[in-house]
Amino acid sequence: MVSERAGRPLVRCERAPPPLGAGEVRLRVGACGVCRTDLHLVDGELPGRRGPVVPGHEIVGRIAELGPGVTGWALGERVGVPWLASTCGTCRYCRRGRENLCARAAFTGYTVDGGYAEEAVARADALLRIPDRYDDQAAAPLLCAGLIGYRTWAMAGPADHLGIFGFGAAAHLIAQVAVAKGQKVYAFTRPGDRAAQDFARSLGAIWAGGSDQAPPAILDAALIFAPVGDLVPLALSRVDKGGTVVCGGIHMSDIPAFPYEVLWHERVLRSVANLTRADGEAFMALAAEIPLRSSTFAYPLDRANEALGDLRSGRLQGAAVLVP
Q1: What are phi and psi of 15, to 5 degrees?
Q2: Pairing of β 106-107 and β 78-81
Q3: Where is the Alcohol dehydrogenase-like N-terminal domain (predicted)?
Q4: Residue 315's pLDDT band (cuts 50, 70, 90)
Q5: N or C: which end of the chain has fewer CB within 10 A?
Q6: CA nearest 248: which of 288, 279, 292?
Q7: Going from the N-terminus, what domains does the chain have, and what CATH number goes with each?
Q8: What is the pTM of this model?
Q9: Cα(321)–Cα(41) distance, integer angstroms
Q10: How many other C-beta atoms lie within 10 A of the C-beta of residue 8?
Q11: In the prediction, which pLDDT does 136 show?
Q12: Hey, how many other C-beta atoms are within 10 angstroms of the C-beta on 214?
């Protein structure tokens, strides 16, 4: 399923498998998660796009072919492919251990073809091992919703009272991690979205309400997964002195002007950009330890446009997954 032009539905097509380059593997795709970033790509909200691309960066598959020079992986082994497809390894960001900011990074399903397909090609050094406790469909959201949720959560630092704005794919996974680590979770949804609030409570949130409501306690930190700029000053106003607000999305609507008072007292506002391989390994170890409930809805591959539409409209509680 190919995104030929921004703002247009995906198109089904048949392609001959490309030859493998050095360090690459070919996968038979078992499942591919549908991420909000895919929606931003299809809707033309991401910059720097060049030509047609196969979306999808939450890929679970089995290795069908090893390219030249690949070691450490075996035919038939189940692996995951995340958003970060490759880095240069030599720029100042890579040298400082911040490969997520690499000046010449490639991204799965954005600058290189992804997993909305029966087969996918990936670099072997970007692959992740997936805990056995998750089947393909349950594992797919771990590859981005889980990973970006994890990096967003880690950047927030210690927090007894944690707010989460936007209770979708990333939030429903990291909320379970936070609860398992003893944090009190407060879930903020679209005003009046009772189903999402009930869902949040079922995963351990001690309070769930609309973003227009005040929680029963002041927050130590807040994570924003909804791509809504208006939530930034609101979240800042909900956190205590010295608290942190972390924006976990790749795209957000404009942030409105807000009084300095809501940032004062050493509150911190920061964003998350991509992830590192170390993030992936750390989160997969955590997912092996904590039995995360991955709430998914399966769609056949050729119904990818329907899955994107359900995500766009907010009809999903959890994550959509394409199954070839």
Answers
A1: -135, 150
A2: unpaired
A3: 21-132
A4: confident
A5: C
A6: 279
A7: 24-143+274-323 (3.90.180.10), 147-271 (3.40.50.720)
A8: 0.91
A9: 17
A10: 12
A11: 97
A12: 9
From 168, 151, 212, select the one nearest 316 (Cα to Cα): 168
Contact 324, 301 (CB under 8 A): yes
Q: What is the pLDDT of residues 222-245, one digit of tens each?
A: 999 999 999 999 999 999 999 999
Of 109, 107, 131, 120, whose CA–CA distance to 31 is shortest? 120
In sign, the C-alpha dihedral spanning 221, 227, 233, 234 is negative
Which runs of consecutive H residues, i.e. helices, occur in the chain?
A: 36-42, 92-95, 136-139, 145-156, 169-180, 194-202, 231-238, 277-289, 304-313
DSSP letters along 188-204, please?
EESTT-HHHHHHHHHTT
Buried b (16+ CB within 10 A) or exposed e, 220-240: bbbbbbbbbeebbbbbbbbbe
Question: Which residues is 107 bridged to in the sheet?
Answer: 84
DSSP string, 38-84: HHHHHTT-SSS--S-B-----EEEEEEEE-TT--S--TT-EEEE-SE
Residue pair 115/54 in contact by the 8 Å Cβ criterion: yes
